[in-house]
Amino acid sequence: xxxxxxxxxxANACKTLVELSGVEISTWKKYVGHEREYxxxxxxxxxVIKTYGQLPRNYLDFDFIYFHVTTSANNCATIxxxxxxxxxxxYLCKESEIRIFLDQHGVLLNLDNGLLTFNGRTYDITFHSGxxxxxxxxxxxxxxxxRKFYFDYTTCGFLSVWERSPYGGQVHCRxxxxxxxxxxxxxxxxxxxxxxxxxxxxxxxxxxxDIIFDGDEDQSxxxxxxxxxxxxxxxxxxEPFEHVLLMKxxxxxxxxxIIEIKPLSFWK
Length: 268
Prior knowledge:
4-stranded mixed sheet; alpha+beta; 2 domains; 9 strands
């Protein structure tokens, strides 16, 4: 049975910390302020769990609850129907907002052959990870688009957010790919999208086996679990920090995994 992991707020992080470690919140509170007595905070977390509780065996058994931030002009109707799709699948879905928007503006993609066509001109957007063109060239701008569609296209979200400062990718304003297309074609699709679409936060869940571990993959299972429990500790007793969650390539989030969709309440 999957174990719920939710650090979207301090209260949720406290509950997660107690349920996953078996250590009562009153005990955890006794250690707050003693972090400097340890080399790292995860050493404190490990010490408390070793003394009073039990460390989960693997984060793969966790059911991660997270925020997905997006923009929509139709109250996320396509997401409600098809779920949260990665960039590649979102473009291939002819009902998706990004596909309809690009079609309306004459930006056509042939993902099988790595081609982008606009205004009668075709661009090669094939991507090779070890062959990055020189910055500032047209080849680089094409490569950047290809990178989004063939390498950096996974769905993502946030285990927790820092409400004072928006995520650098500006996903609450427009899809990141539009910025890359604007740079190549000298358009302002990003600005037009932002004017016609509203930001939403989608609460969803995903099992640990479908995410990319955001750390050293050579770490032991124990160290990986400790990293996530330390995130919970830091969020429970400090100010929430931005923790990004990435899904593995090819993982889509079905509608049944979506808990709630509502207008974005942070980053305003």
